[in-house]
Amino acid sequence: MVETLPPWKFANRPILRTELSPRTNRALAQPQHQMITNNPSAFSSPSIPAVNGAAYLVDGEIRHWTGVMTGIESPMQVHLGDLASLSTPEVLAALAAAKKAWNNGLGAWPTSHPNERIAAMEQFVAGMRAKVKELATMLCFEIAKPYKDAEKEITRTIEYIDLTIAAYKEMEEQSNVIKKADGFMAQIRRSPLGVCLVMGPYNYPINETFCLLVPALIMGNTVLIKGARFGALTLQLLIEDFQRSFPAGVINTINGKGATIIPPLMESGDINVLAFIGSAAASRRIRAPHPKPNRLRCVLGLEAKNVAIICPDADLDLAAAECVAGSLSYNGQRCTAIKMILVHGEVREAFTQKYVERVNKLVAGNAFDPAVSITPMPSPEEVARLQSLLAGALAAGARLVSPGLDGRTVAGSTLMIPAVIDQVTTAMEIAKVEQFGPVVPIGEWTDRMAVLDYLSNADVGQQLALFTASADVAGWWIDHTAQLQCRLNLNSQCQRGPDVFPFTGRKDSAEGTLSISDALRCFSIRSMVAVKKTPANVDLAQEILSKGTSNFFSTKVIL
Ligand code: G3H
How far is the CA of 75 from the centre of ligand 1 (A)? Predict the structure, then answer.
């Protein structure tokens, strides 16, 4: 369905408001969608940051691609620039540079003292701090993330880097001891793994890319980063900072069609760590061509189908507020989003009413408008995928809860009005796949064992949101679901933060744990020096330590 409105254009900045309408019967009346006169003082029209999409960093050198470029359009309908679409020889040159910097673990970076790596990271983060507004503006343009959330993504990433540096210092300090057992002395450290291929997702193209990149680097690995499907221009704004802060070959950046440039990298067998955030199917495709799979460590953040379970005794206002934020923040394009709401039959109508009332208050439009939370989807293909999923659910017996919340787009744009459907059964496709967009399925439960069956049969297991006021009820659900997912959120939406908490998932949701200290472990392996305690060996060990002949076997103070 397409609303008959004038074409939605960034240049004119009209916005669409979805207003609350009074409830008439069980089904809600059609909300009044109205174009409001654009108020130019509501938000300023930023200029597009200048970016060179042809540049890529290889072996410490910024090179300029002269071949095929891909045009990058903002979902808010402005041309942002062009991005290099590299071919195989260029990405293999980038791989060669990363391999040279690794040098079988003997490169200057993997063998450097932790203090040197910390200093490089501190220099980099200082550069990033100076670019918050520029990065957030480009991010907002590129992926239509509401500006304040785009800015939060950048500041959160900076904080993540600071916290990673602190956690790394702590880890190194704890390794700065000589342990003794059964006639041996030993020093145990975590050492790097080799060449990492880092690929972040479009919904958090900076934050999640850096949640992989930063621990990989600080542990001493060398890296190839491929920009996300959307969001790669924002990353381009940082390549000079990469060049300035890190030695040649330690970071190499590549852009291009994944299907063209990733297989040759994996087929080479020279990638030691695949660090990827995206779909489970894509991760299977990417890792498959590696000729020596046992040598490949995978650090993966994949799909999720996080479920909100609303119990009869829940505070329904709180549940509705948390579920709206959980399901529709950034149009539901979060791996942690609530992607299925299961409400107990006794409160289904009351909850749905409250949920819809809140959704109807959301404002859809331009991501730079501070009043807006529903923004255009990144591509027409995403909209088509979501609308087809919605159509399938409706054909299978689901029902639009409110005729106004029907998943239509505003003419000429990818701005999709949320669709809220109920009477969703766990057998429907919409109950099984990760929609990753503004389509919210609501189902009803009465038998909690049936809910457990649904969770157990899912291919994924990241988080749950449980809404109840009862300690007995909460205790039951906590104990019966702890083996099915990795975080139960009590009376709050699902989310990754605080970032010091472990972020992981079961089954097809993740491999490894992506949080500050856990990520340092993912990108390293324990390695040790064991010394049999003979008088000669004790003297030798003392001399290595006092002369500082080794960076690894060392008790040098971490600054
Ligand atoms: O898309 C997955 C993100 O890591 C979710 O993070 O819960 O802070 O939005 P968030």
Answer: 21
Q: How far is CA 24 from the centre of its chain?
A: 40
Residue 201 CA: which ligand 1 atom is closest?
1
Among 286, 301, 316, which residue terminates a domain?
A: 301
Query: Among the listed ranges 13-27, 173-187, 209-223, 313-327, which one has the minimum average pLDDT value?
Result: 13-27
Looking at residue 248, its pLDDT comes to: 98
* pLDDT over threshold 60, residue 296: yes
Per residue in 367-377, pLDDT tens? 999 999 999 99
Kindly state whether residues 297 and 320 are assigned to the same domain: no
Q: How far is the CA of 337 from the centre of ligand 1 (A)?
A: 8
Q: Could you tell me the distance, in angstroms and rounded to a whole number, from the CA of residue 430 to the centre of ligand 1?
A: 21
| Type and span of the H or E element at 264 | helix 258-267
Torsion from C-alpha of 113, 116, 118, 121, nearest 10 degrees:
-140
Q: Which residues line ligand 1 (CB under 6 A)?
A: 203-204, 208, 334-336, 495-497
Token pair of 97 as six digits: 């540079």
Domain-terminating residue out of 280, 301, 322: 301
Classify residue 522: in a domain, yes or no.
no
Tokens (6 digits) for 425: 């059964």
Q: Give me the pLDDT at residue 44, please.
A: 63
In-domain check, residue 14: yes
Give pLDDT tens digits for 406-424: 999 988 899 999 999 999 9
* pTM > 0.90: yes
Ligand 1 mean position to 328 CA, how many Å?
A: 13
